[in-house]
Amino acid sequence: xxxxxxxxxxxxxxxxxxxxxxxxxxxxxxxxxxxxxxxxxxxxxxxxxxxxxxxxxxxxxxxxxxxxxxxxxxxxxxxxxxxxxxxxxxxxxxxxxxxxxxxxxxxxxxxxxxxxxxxxxxxxxxxxxxxxxxxxxxxxxxxxxxxxxxxxxxxxxxxxxxxxxxxxxxxxxxxxxxxxxxxxxxxxxxxxxxxxxxxxxxxxxxxxxxxxxxxxxxxxxxxxxxxxxxxxxxxxxxxxxxxxxxxxxxxxxxxxxxxxxxxxxxxxxxxxxxxxxxxxxxxxxxxxxxxxxxxxxxxxxxxxxxxxxxxxxxxxxxxxxxxxxxxxxxxxxxxxxxxxxxxxxxxxxxxxxxxxxxxxxxxxxxxxxxxxxxxxxxxxxxxxxxxxxxxxxxxxxxxxxxxxxxxxxxxxxxxxxxxxxxxxxxxxxxxxxxxxxxxxxxxxxxxxxxxxxxxxxxxxxxxxxxxxxxxxxxxxxxxxxxxxxxxxxxxxxxxxxxxxxxxxxxxxxxxxxx
Length: 514
Known about the structure:
The chain has helices spanning 3-8, 10-19, 24-34, 37-45, 47-50, 99-103, 112-138, 141-158, 164-192, 195-204, 207-223, 226-234, 243-246, 251-256, 260-274, 279-294, 311-337, 345-354, 356-366, 372-393, 396-424, 430-452, 461-477, 492-513; strands at residues 56-60, 74-76, 82-84, 87-90. With 514 residues, the protein is an all-alpha fold. The longest helix has 29 residues, at 164-192.
């Protein structure tokens, strides 16, 4: 994907030659790192079963009339006035205890359940920022271990919280750690596999997240209470602390920060495991030392503002970030919306998780054959149109299948927009571009729970909002240039001229064909 960048920076090529493109050493690390995605899925999507839709009735004060008090927050009392309910009875046939029944998150406290999910997503966003900065300074492995430990400890503590505010605080800390684990594990994986495998691995890396999503309803079904559920999704991460002995530091980071001796030890181990000639390791170390002295260094301090300083770059950036935003809203919003659809909540959520897998397989099969924009546009249209059909048909059974189809579309959109962003932004601001895109997705996921619960006001509001957002994203794809099989932009000037150059090349090709 970044072939030209790696050709321009020779050390990256020789490092890959030293540890191989994909071998037994890579496979063990890739599998281990992918397991991090299980708790990532559990913690990000746990709100569906921590705060499931719950029927309630008012038991205090008592009503002076014979009217049904189910799902009502005010009652008629003896003097004919309306008083606010202060004590409730809950339907506990499916869930014996949830955070709704624990802290009376109904009536005027109803939105506090959405606050939990918004805080979780904000924590993930903050974790991405904090741990990305730490990982660039002290390496990948140590921050990963810190994040795993923090995720486990805070997750377990939150399951024993006796106050809502305390639960929210530790849930937020756990989310920060979750943001760190998901970011560092992905970066570390991308730094050890060869260029030929990066697109495929970036997609396959998402499969454990889907499996984690799929097992969430099973864990909830077996636990029945939010305490046990939260405990069950937090304890397994403790096993990941064994990564201290399994996962190595990134050789690329070690060489980039002037630690060739430590990098050599890791590269030698990788070479032996993958049956790579040991002289390749010596060549990588020697080449790095010599190239470090002669390499031209661009001393410009590139930052996020460079994405918007030139008109063409600014326009493309805005279109891409809007797509990220709507992908975040739709995926996490639909995941929660599935819990509010009529029917068995466990079956509904399971179906929504199952349909993600075909979407991932579709991306994996098409990503090297079909243009990125066609895949992204098709996925957005699939999601948008299927959700709008919910409003037209308005049938509970059909709603379940159409919403599931929408989730399948977002499962295609997310990895595609991630790959496209890493190709469209110039090398000098690529991390900034993908980072801002991820921030936009997190902002969308913070808003998503409020949209998902709008169905209590009007049933058509959530699917219409989600659907229109994806259709807007599809339309914006028409205004963006394709990146498949293109020489990737390196400088801001390259990024500014990227679309123009593509247009000129296309015109020239058509002229030659005629």
